[in-house]
Design goal:
165 residues, alpha+beta, three-stranded antiparallel sheet
Length: 165
């Protein structure tokens, strides 16, 4: 069992946010992100962390561009109380000097007109193949949480790349 009592948990971080408690930690030259399952009224519900790890492993086996998650059973602190729970962990995927923008923000800022729908925008900026992978993978794992806030574009001096699924 890992000891993650040193982590500080928040409902948002420098990632896309979301409704799950998250944390980040720098160790040497590497930055890690941590995520918990749903935490309400002093208890954990759901299995979000396990799903992240399973989806990561399945996507990797299928050759899909997925964010690599590992999972640890750990002791953590929330509001000065200890809990034992499963924690999902990923390495920082954002290179130094890059800016991360949720796809929905990029779309609303850069669409050609108010009539350009999100899928047409994504095709225009070259995301069609990536979205094909995303939609196929989401179908395979029965993901019902795909939206414009959990696909991120990473901008640098050469343009943008997308985060892994």
């Amino acid at each position: 069992m890992k000891d993650y009592r040193f982590l500080q948990w928040n409902y948002s971080s420098s990632s896309s946010g979301g409704t799950y408690l998250k944390s980040e930690y720098v160790f040497g030259s590497k930055k890690y992100y941590y995520k918990l399952s749903d935490f309400r009224m002093g208890r954990f519900t759901g299995c979000e962390t396990a799903i992240e790890v399973i989806a990561s492993r399945l996507g990797d086996c299928l050759g899909f561009p997925v964010l690599k998650y590992t999972g640890d059973l750990a002791v953590i602190n929330i509001d000065d109380k200890e809990y034992i729970t499963y924690v999902a962990k990923s390495l920082n995927y954002v290179r130094k000097g890059c800016t991360v923008i949720p796809l929905i923000t990029d779309y609303l800022t850069n669409r050609q007109s108010k009539y350009e729908i999100p899928l047409d925008y994504c095709r225009r900026i070259g995301l069609q193949e990536y979205l094909d992978y995303v939609f196929l993978f989401d179908y395979l794992i029965m993901n019902v949480d795909r939206h414009g806030h959990n696909i991120e574009l990473i901008y640098d001096n050469n343009g943008y790349t997308v985060t892994d699924i």
